[in-house]
Specification:
Layout (H helix, E strand, L loop, with lengths): L1 H5 L11 H8 L4 E3 L3 E7 L6 E5 L7 H17 L8 E7 L11 H12 L1
Parallel strand pairs: 3-4
Antiparallel strand pairs: 1-2, 2-4
Amino acid sequence: MEEKNSRSFPREQRMCTANDFSRMRKSRAKVHGQTLTYVRCPNQIQQTRLGIIVTRKTGNAVIRNRWKRVLRDFFRCHKDLFTTDMDHLWIVKPSHKGEPPLKTRNEMQLLLQKIQ
């Protein structure tokens, strides 16, 4: 029971508004990988938040949801890697079609290391 709460993903940890996403896309703190782009930007709410962008070019709803599930799970399991008081945005590149590859988690860790 306790582990489920520690791995939850409450609304306060999600970026929800269009203004948040547009502010993030204008940020200069970006790193690009093979399948993902990682963007981070300071926020004013003293909370670490996650945003995910997966376009329809990536695939059908099942594939897009799979991508989001993998990215959210990484965020929940590795919260210690994410800087606090920041918004973190993962963008799946539209040129990458289909299911997330097995090496996605490794690419995410590499991008987090590059930006710091």
